[in-house]
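We emphasize that the prediction below concerns an isolated chain of 179 residues; any contacts that depend on oligomerization or on bound cofactors are therefore not represented. The input was used exactly as deposited, without trimming of termini.
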Amino acid sequence: MWNPDQYLMTLLFAAEAHKDQKIPDSNYNYVTHVTNVAMEVANALVQQPLSIVDTTFAIQCALLHDTIEDTPVTYKDVLQHFGNTIADGVLALTKNDELPKSQRMEDSLQRIVRQGAAVRIVKMADRINNLQHPPSYWTIEKKKKYHQEAQLILDTLGGVHAYIEKRLADKIKAYPQFF
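Result of the prediction step, given as a token string:
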């Protein structure tokens, strides 16, 4: 199981970081997204526990996965509040905006692989949550590219957790309905 005190502390940190952010094309606060990703991770690890995965760590990374990328929170902030292991996991889940856009996902995926199974599960859970109805302003080309990127995520990060991989594969299979 996971530590509820660590969950609450991390959730409050994420909620503060994302307090002024909305999910694109909605009125929902962005913390809804990160809690949904944490729920996917928790559910996966209940459905198929892995002794090599620290569930509290995985859920904390899920709650924090977009803080460095999408808020003023820095790696140093995460490091100060949560320590090296979590800060490094969150940093791996963060695209490097100093790279050309075409290289960012591949770079992030390689860093995620080096972090291990828990961070791989978080990234797959993130994409599961993101493969819902896309924003109304996305073009068909953008939707197709996002679909292809989801397959790249599964192909690169798969092989660690059958349950979450099937969930992601099912979402990928269903996503063309939005083209």
